[in-house]
Structures are given as C-alpha cells and as structure tokens.
Amino acid sequence: MSEQRTPDMSKNLVQxxxxxxxxxxxxxxxxxxxxxxxxxxxxLSIFTTLGIIFVLGNESIAFFTRDQWVETNRGIxxxxxxxxxxxxxxxxxxxxxxxxxxxxxxxxxxxxxxEFQNNTIANExxxxxxxxxxxxxxxxxxxxxxxxxxxxxxASRKIDSDEIAACTSVGIDPIPFRVGTDALAxxxxxxxxxxTDLTLEELALVFTTAENWSDVRDEWPEEPIQxxxxxxxxxxxxxxxxxxxxxxxxxxxxxxxxxxxxxxQLVGSISRDANAIGFFGYxxxxxxxNNLNIVTIDDVVASAATVEDSTYxxxxxxxxxxDADIMRDNPQVASFxxxxxxxxxxxxxEVGYFQASEEALAEAExxxxxxxxVDEMPEVIASEVSGHVESAxxxxxxxxxxxxxxxxxxxxxxxxxxxxxxxxxxxxVTSHRTGITIELDDRPTIVEFFTNTSWIPQLGEFGxxxxxxxxxxxxxIAMLVALPLGMGAAIYLSEYASPRVRSIFKPILEILAGxxxxxxxxxxxxxxxxxxxxxxxxxVVNIYNTASAGIxxxxxxxxxxxxxxxxxxxxxxxALREASYGLGATxxxxxxxxxxxxxxxxxxxxxxxxxxxxxxxxxxxxxxxxAGPNFTFNPFDSAETMTGHIARISGGDLSYDSIxxxxxxxxxxxxxxxxxxxxxxxxVIISRFREAY
Length: 693
Description:
By secondary structure, the protein is α/β, with parallel strands linked by helices. Helix content is 52%, strand content 14%. The strands form 4 sheets. Strands 5, 6, 7, 9, 10, 11, 12, 14 and 15 form a 9-stranded mixed beta sheet that branches. The protein has a 6-stranded antiparallel beta sheet with strand order 1-17-3-4-16-2, with no helix packed on it.
C-alpha cells in the first residue's frame, strides 16, 4: 500500500527543495575572493601575453621602418661651418651604399645627400698571372666568381701571347705603361751565415736538383734546402723561371716548395728557417733587411747602378696595364694613370724599387696620349677627380701602386658628399669639427632580413640566417642527445622499475632541471669542450663551438623529456598491458607495440616542448657556443645563437632606440614565431594521436 502525500507534505517537500537550492546558490565570501583572484590572474596573464606580443611587434616594425643610424666609422676631414654643403670624409668600404636622396647625420644634424662621390682606390694582390686572368675573364666567369673586372693590372712582367688572346676575345686591347724597375732579391735568413753569393748556375742548382746545401758547395753544411717561393700565378715566379731556369719549372715543382702569393708570408717563412732560401721583389727585402740577408749573384749586388747598367742579372721592368675603352669610359682611371706616370719617379725610390729611364716613361706617356686621343698629358688635380679605381695583380708592383694611391688620396681624391642642410626643423644647422663620424640611414628589408647571410648591424648587414642556423644546429644536437636518453629513462621508470625505485630515481633525475643553466654553461666550456678537443683534436674543435653547447643543452632537457614521457607512459591503462601479456607478448613487445603507441600523443608533445626549450636556452649557448654570428654548418666552429646574441648585446652599452636595440626585438619576434609554431604543432599532434580510454 503506497503512502499518499497530503497537501501539507508536498508543500513541505517543495519548501525543502527550495531551501537546498538556496543553499547551493548562497554566496560564500572566501570562495568569491578566490574566484575573483583566479579570474584576475587569467586576465592578467592574457594581457601580459598580449603586451609582450605588442612590444615585440611594435619594436620589430620600428626595426624595418624607423631611421636606423649606422655609424660608418668615417670621420669628416675638414671643419664644416654653417654654410658648407660639400665635405670630404675618410675612405672606407662601408660608404659604398650611400646614394642621393638618402639621409645622413653628423652629430645631431640631419642632411640629405644630393650627390655622393665614392672616390676610392682598391689594390688587390693576385699575382701578375692572376691579375691578367681576372682582367681578361668573360662576363659570365666574373659573375660566377662574384668578381669585378679591374681597371688596371699591376704586372711584374710583360703580358704573354695567350693572355693577349684572352683579352682580345673580350674586347680588351692591353696597353703597357712602364713604371719602374725591380731587382729580384734572392734572400736567406739572417741566421744563415754561409750563403752570401751564388752564380746563376748555382742558383739554378739550388732550385732544381740540389737536396742539401753541400750539393751546391762542398764546404756548405749537409742540411736540407727549404725552398720558399711565390705561387705560380705570380709574375715574380714567371720571371724567375724564365731568367734562371730557362722556362722549365718541372724540377722546381718536384721539390714541393712552400708557396704563397703574399710576399709578407714568404718573408716570415724564410726569416724563421736558417736553411731556407727564396726570392721576391727588392722592396720586400729592404723592408725586412733586419731579418734577411740578400745573396749577391756572380758577386754583383743589386743597386740602382747595377740595375740601370744591367750588370745585375736579375733586374726586370715593372708595368701597369689598362685599356683605351676602360680609360675613356672611366675618366678617373685615366686621371689616376696620368698622375701615376707623372709622380712615379718621385715615389719609387722610397718604396725600394728603381726609377724607369726617361725613355721608358716617355713611351708610357705616349701610350697614354694615344689611348686618350690627345697631344699632351694634362695636369691632374686629385680633388677634382671622382669615381672608383680597381686594380689587381702583382704583389711586387702592389707596394708601388699603393704608394701612388696614398699620395693621390692625400692630395684630395677622397669620398665627397654634397648635401642639403637643415632638412629637419627640429635640429639647428651647426658647425662640426674635424673628425666627427658620419652616420647613414640604413633600413633593413624583410627580404634582406631572411636572406642575407651576414649579421653586422653596425655596418648595415641585417641577415638573421646565421643566428637561425646556429640556433637550429644547437637544438638539433641537443635533441639527438636528449630524445634517446630521456625516452630510455622514461621507459625504464614506467615499465621496468619497481614503484620504490621509480619513487627514488624520478626525483633524482628531475634534480637536473633545478641546476642553474649558468653552471651548465661553464660545464660545457670546462669539461665538454676539452673532451671533444681530446677526441677530435684541438686544431679541429674551437674552444667555443656549437657541438659542446648542444650536447650540454641536451643534458639539460633530459629531465623534461623523461618526466613528461614517463607521465604519458604511466597513464596508459594497466588493462592494455595485461591484455598484451594474455596474448603471449613479451615485456619488450608490450612496451614497443602497445604502451608506447598508446602514449604517443604525450611523448610527441614532450618532444616538441623539449625542442622549444632547447631553442630558447640562453646561458649555455652564450657561454659555450661563441660570440659573433657565423654562418657555418661545422658543429666544431663557434657560432652565435639567437638567444646568445640577444644576451650578449643586451649586456653591453646599448643605446635606447639604436639599431642594435631595435634588432633585439626583431630577433625576439622571430624566435617567438618559431616557438609558437612548435606549440601549434604540439596541439595538432596531441589532437591527432590522442587515445581515449
């Protein structure tokens, strides 16, 4: 018999239910406070994240749009008063990009460039043969090698028939200009006290079949002869082979001599070896006579008199070469050659060579007038000449060309700016004293930022590729260390270790995560780097290198990988393991075919978080990887990561609103985008591989 409810009972039940509902809705003071605090924390974290993104974005936009004043390290050479609109500065390659319409700044005054004359002279040492090869190369060859065709070739010998044919094929008609005479100096170390004179026959013997000094003269010591000579592209080498070896260098090359196109290196090598002998231009001997002895040839000493009357057997003419079309198309080249021929005899003795005869200079001047189609040599005023002169070739002629270039520059052939003053009203036009450096406005572009392989903001080079490359190299090495070790530790703790062992070893492993990263950095520098140098060799592994930094970053993130992976493995239901055992699977088969696949989403998430941690690591790479962006794929070279670069330049004297300051945020935004994409990938992987139990 069912119990019947009276109206009073129903009324009481409804009242009781209302009371219960009222109790659930009744506000509790401390819960309201906690909820409010939690809500505030959430809002604060969101706004903090948005604020960081805003700052990164704003400063990064400023990096690409704001005036970026790059100091050229080139000071003005004369005082500038309030009315001057033209001035000269010290020459330098980092002025090459200045163009009309751009801005420059001296002190706090802004100026607009009306005209910029980048008046400079370049002298590159390639050897005479190397100079002719580049001069007579095709446009395609020059483009492939990223070279420019020189206007002038310095030559310590006459151009040969093959080189003339090569020049003719590209439309160049070589014109020789005799500029002086050189005596080829045969030298030994100052420590060598027995080789003072050689005949031409003995000289040929030394450089061909003789192995020991006693093979040349019986009274000389039975010590091996060390030959140190210019390279085969050198005109000095060509001249020696022609004058001493009858144009046959087979035996000379069979002796495997030490070679260099740089005469300073030859000087150093000879001076350090008492049994060495070599040859180069007379000027290099004079410059280093304290460390070298010159050998007389057939008892004749090289001097102005013996060179002039040809009694010294190893005297040779010196030339510069150019082309009529090059001279007409580039008036600055014609003016420089004119100045060269006019003043060479005033300067050549100071360099250490011998003056060309009046007849030789007159012939050179006649060649110049014929090329330019004039009847006389005009007077050249250096301050009225503008443009760039490119010369290359002989290391012997290079000192003379550099001397003439220096004198030409001193007389006014300098980079010259024509500007408009007072273009910004907030800055008063003022005078400037000599020596103040100029700054150029140089804004990087997005394309340059992600394609240029040089990062030197001070010189207007804004390529982040070297920083990204070294960051990825370090992170890759770190993951190659952390993933197998961390995953192995996770599998052991989850599947093989007893609960007691797991409870002991897991906290111990995670202690690694609590060690300050600066300690890891010095561990990499003082332990890992010496270990790598001991294994691979000190000449292979630099003191600062990405390999040791990456290995130690990998050690740092092992606890992160192992802890997260172990949690994912431990979360797999025990029933799956028991089902696998029931089907006859072994422990290893169960782990590899059941447990790990079931925990795959968590394991992959751990890997991606670890990669993000490796990319963002700062102290280890700042201490152990090296300072200075370096685009290299060699893990044993030093290279600076993105975080390491930010830490390094932030710790210095960094001016607010400078280009270095803005670059920090551009790099930081790039780093943020990289880690953000990794986090997005992590979410996708977790959603794709998540297992529901």
